[in-house]
Amino acid sequence: MTTPLEVRHETAYTYDQPVELAHHIAFLRPRDDGPQRLLDFTLEVEPAPPCLRHETDAFGNTRTLFSLHAPHDALRVTAVSRIAVEPCAAPAGGPDAPAAREHWRYHAGHAPDAASAFVFASPLVPLADE
Known about the structure:
This protein is mainly β. It is built from one helix and six strands, in the order E-E-E-E-E-E-H. Strand 4 (52-56) and strand 5 (62-68) form a beta hairpin. The protein is extended, with a radius of gyration of 20 Å. The two termini are 37 Å apart.
């Protein structure tokens, strides 16, 4: 196994006026699958919420939900992860353009590939020509 990596992610908000009620969803816990192993994970929220809940989304990512019910003028979310990543070989080849086009096109009566949510442009992320 490779030398573990420590990743520290901190998000800090300061508000001009106290916020009385806030609901948050954080995607900060790294995946533990394939060549990546999650060795340790801590999440600290200041001010501490009365309840933290962890769920898994449709793509296998952990999301953390929490709410703050008391007035606060700052919020700090700190995630510290220790992970180990094994080297892996790149997949050999991929589909040619016609096969990829066929895979991603709409097929009536069939559920779309879950990754199709990442194929098309969005209002926040336009498609680049390349």
